[in-house]
Design goal:
15 helices, Rossmann fold, 5-stranded parallel β-sheet, alpha/beta, 3 domains, single chain, GMP Synthetase, Chain A, domain 3, 9-stranded mixed β-sheet
């Protein structure tokens, strides 16, 4: 890809919406490069680098000027701008419209009705001039700015879609980026191509070539080390670096003892024997178990595992001379959940041991080639890099491993029980051809024992929780609806084959309100 073509993008300005990352994904799915910037950080923007701008939703009120702290000169740039929800209200107020708190808030599905034709809504409405959309707002526009027209409305919001085509300013009160909005992608497509005149410059092939080039430019002729876990992210990073710099790459695989059943053997066989990479294997299972003794608080577990991992990694990295870079499989959602890549008001949900955990004394420069990619993009990239489907299709696995899938104390016996239970669950998913239909599935061991009866004997053993979710990007998720006999079959196999478990339950909670992992 030509460098100047890559620079051209749709800029998404984030005002703290939970859906901002979805906007970026939708734009990329349409084949156009997109980037997210926090509204507080966007001071200067070069219009020549932009196809257009999208303003996200958010929890703020448009009159909270001190909190918004947004460079409103950006709204005067000669590029098309689309405001979504809060962004729609921001555009309205900026150009002289009126926004107030609605008497009746709109949350969830709402039906909008077409009033005027618009480039933005070409082929968007049905034959009855209606469309169901996803609303999430308490404020609404009650007076249009001068020069603007009302394109569509709902019962609760007179100006649901607005436009000033002369200056290419558009606003929609709903969220076209979420799947609940019918034909939402079409509306975004109309904006990106018909209004912004964007050129396609984002595909898996382009990503592969650009990322290899980026790594080569960053690393040069220096050595780089990679923390390899065997999961999708670190595997793709390792293979990307292998293609980019070859033998300059040294992978370090630390077996924490908290991996899935036989995972350490699979990693060594794949990367050292098949792909012929420089791989250092470290079995540190006993060290991790010792450090986690009697630790029950989830965040403390994560910190202990992360810190010890870095300490061991650092020890072996020092044995390699002239290393200048450390590669990590950090993804966009990792940054968002940990500290928000854009600096927005997004809450820190939990820490990730591969985000911001590099000790300053290592004096290594971070190389995170996947940091702006979502999981589905990483999988597609892995296929282009000739990694096996078995590796690429693996469900996400947390850095802290099984430690956060057993609330309460971590012990060797519990780890072994959990490994066996998880293996049975995953094996049955693959056997019934359900594995690839699920975003993530796992078994967890709850810190509760219950009474059971096996034969004529009383048992007092752990509860095994099964979790399987569907998702597009891990930011939101719903539980997978299994046939009843599948769960019964898995439950029977776990209880009959694993001493220590006498009860199996299935988690039917979505995200939000829960997270995908238990801790």
């Amino acid at each position: 890809m030509k460098k100047n073509n890559r620079a051209k993008k749709i800029l998404i300005i984030d005002f703290g919406s939970q859906y901002t990352q979805l906007i970026a994904r939708r734009v990329r799915e349409l084949g156009v490069f997109s980037e997210i910037s926090n509204h507080k950080q966007v001071k200067k923007v070069n219009a020549e680098e932009l196809f257009g701008i999208i303003l996200s939703g958010g929890p703020l009120n448009v009159y909270e000027d001190k909190k918004i702290n947004f460079n409103k000169k950006i709204l005067n740039l000669k590029v098309p701008i689309l405001g979504l929800c809060f962004g729609h209200q921001l555009i309205s107020r900026h150009y002289g419209g009126k926004v107030i708190t609605a008497k009746n808030r709109e949350f969830g599905l709402a039906t909008i009705k077409k009033k005027l034709n618009s480039k933005l809504t070409k082929k968007f409405f049905d034959n009855h001039k209606h469309r169901n959309v996803w609303m999430s707002h308490a404020d609404h526009v009650t007076k249009l700015p001068k020069g603007f027209k009302g394109v569509a409305s709902t019962k609760g919001s007179k100006f649901t879609i607005i436009e000033n085509d002369a200056i290419k300013r558009y606003g929609v009160q709903f969220h076209p980026e979420v799947t609940h909005t019918e034909k939402g992608i079409l509306l975004l497509k109309n904006f990106i191509f018909d209004i912004c005149k964007s050129k396609k410059n984002w595909s898996t092939d382009h990503q592969k070539k650009t990322l290899i080039k980026d790594v080569q430019n960053q690393v040069g002729d220096k050595k780089i080390i990679c923390a390899l876990s065997g999961g999708v992210d670190s595997s793709v990073v390792a293979q990307l670096l292998n293609k980019a710099v070859g033998k300059q790459l040294h992978c370090i695989f630390v077996n924490t003892g908290l991996l899935r059943l036989h995972e350490e053997k699979q990693v060594v066989n794949t990367f050292k024997k098949k792909l012929k990479m420089n791989l250092i294997y470290v079995n540190a299972a006993d060290e991790f178990l010792k450090k986690l003794k009697n630790i029950t608080e989830p965040e403390k577990k994560r910190k202990i595992i992360g810190n010890l991992f870095i300490k061991i990694f650092e020890h072996y990295a020092k044995k390699l001379k002239n290393v200048k870079f450390l590669a990590q499989g950090t993804l966009y959602p990792d940054l968002i959940e940990s500290k928000s890549v854009t600096g927005s008001q997004t809450s820190k949900i939990k820490s990730h041991h591969n985000v911001g955990g590099l000790p300053k004394k290592m004096k290594l420069e971070l190389c995170e080639p996947l940091r702006l990619l979502f999981k589905d993009e990483v999988r597609k990239l892995g296929i282009k890099l000739n990694l096996s489907k078995e590796i690429i299709s693996r469900h996400p696995f947390p850095g802290p491993g099984l430690a956060i899938r057993m609330p309460g104390k971590v012990s060797k016996d519990k780890i072994e029980i959990l490994k066996q239970a998880d293996n049975i669950f995953i094996s049955e998913l693959k056997k019934e051809k359900l594995y690839d239909k699920i975003w993530q599935a796992y078994a967890a061991l709850l810190p509760v024992k219950t009474v059971g009866v096996m034969g004529d004997n009383r048992t007092y053993e752990y509860i095994c929780l099964l979790r399987a979710i569907t998702s597009q990007d891990g930011m939101t998720a719903d539980f997978f609806d299994f046939p009843k006999n599948f769960i019964q079959n898995v439950s029977n196999k776990i209880i009959n084959n694993i001493r220590g478990i006498n009860r199996v339950v299935y988690d039917v909670t979505s995200k939000p309100p829960s997270t995908i992992e238990l801790e």
